[in-house]
Amino acid sequence: MSSSGRGHVAGPLAAYGEGFREHLLGQGYSWGSAAHQIHLMAHLSRWLEAQGLVPVSAG
Length: 59
Fold this sequence. Notes:
Number of helices: 2
Order of helices and strands: HH
Mean pLDDT: 90
Number of strands: 0
Helix content: 40-55%
Radius of gyration: 12 Å
């Protein structure tokens, strides 16, 4: 479970979940709005995993 207690990203996007949450909160998102975005990220991560896809670093 995440440090905020709201949501958890597993799968190929797991390494990005906490950083994304911190970025959202730093941009002024409320805890609830950030949790909703993390929920969507978790859904996308599950979909990527089901499709056998992985994120590619742009750098």
